[in-house]
Design goal:
Length: 256
């Protein structure tokens, strides 16, 4: 999964340097680029070769969205396409394994920022240091969520999907600082302790969140449904998520 994320990231960066990104509009009105498609082929071909018996769900292959199961690989080959199109750098490659409805292994790679987050076999999460060798892991640090201070929280929110409902919810907390980030990097900022909480009151799909969810869980964090604070599970109908909150466990969550 790590190697495929790096290969896909290299391919994405070739497109990132070009003026024409080959932007098209999908049926749901969201953008897709030639880089999305090229990265998807690298990852899906690699995963199918390595894990032929495991169900694979990927954003860019609509026929996979009708599959059903609670154990599967799930991919967003270029999360944060709007950030990619606008050359803002906050885009990621997301690859995850879901087992019995729970994301257990995940890779989140931000090629334009040279940041790599992944879970290890023991369930812990690390951030590997650049430069990255495809065939051998380099130096890394083990991640752990912040020991959150409810009187001075650090909040991260979506850069492209921020709305009044999100602001109203954030205003229920005592916030020391707030930052915006794109793609699944928001989960990673909670995993590193750079943020305490990431509320998402908007539409997401499981391929948007599974890898970041695994990364955060391996660092001691949680991803909970917004409505009842129950754990967010995977393998739902159409792979669609409800609103959710990604959080360090020490945060005293406010009701919806």
């Amino acid at each position: 999964m790590r190697r495929l994320a790096l290969e896909a990231g290299d391919e994405i960066m070739k497109f990132y340097q070009q003026d024409d990104l080959g932007v098209e509009t999908k049926d749901d009105s969201s953008p897709v680029t030639a880089a999305d498609k090229a990265a998807d082929k690298i990852i899906s071909d690699g995963l199918r070769a390595a894990f032929p018996d495991v169900m694979l769900v990927t954003e860019e292959q609509a026929d996979s969205h009708s599959l059903s199961g609670d154990t599967f690989l799930i991919v967003d080959p270029l999360d944060g396409t709007k950030e990619f199109i606008h050359k803002r750098g906050d885009f990621t490659v997301n690859i995850a394994l879901v087992e019995n409805g729970v994301p257990t292994r995940g890779v989140v790679y931000a090629p334009a920022k040279s940041r790599m987050f992944l879970t290890l076999a023991d369930g812990s999460t690390i951030e590997e240091e650049a430069p990255f060798n495809r065939d051998a892991m380099g130096a890394y640090s083990t991640l752990s969520v912040a020991d959150s201070d409810n009187d001075a929280l650090y909040v991260v929110a979506s850069k492209s999907h921020r709305d009044q409902a999100t602001d109203d919810y954030i205003n229920k907390y005592k916030v020391k600082d707030m930052k915006s980030a794109g793609s699944s990097l928001k989960f990673c900022l909670v995993a590193t302790g750079e943020a305490d909480i990431y509320p998402r009151l908007g539409r997401t799909m499981e391929w948007d969140t599974a890898a970041g969810h695994a990364v955060l869980a391996g660092a001691g964090g949680k991803v909970l449904r917004f409505d009842n604070h129950e754990p967010l599970r995977y393998g739902k109908e159409d792979f669609a998520n409800p609103f959710f909150i990604a959080t360090a466990p020490g945060v005293d969550l406010k009701p919806a």
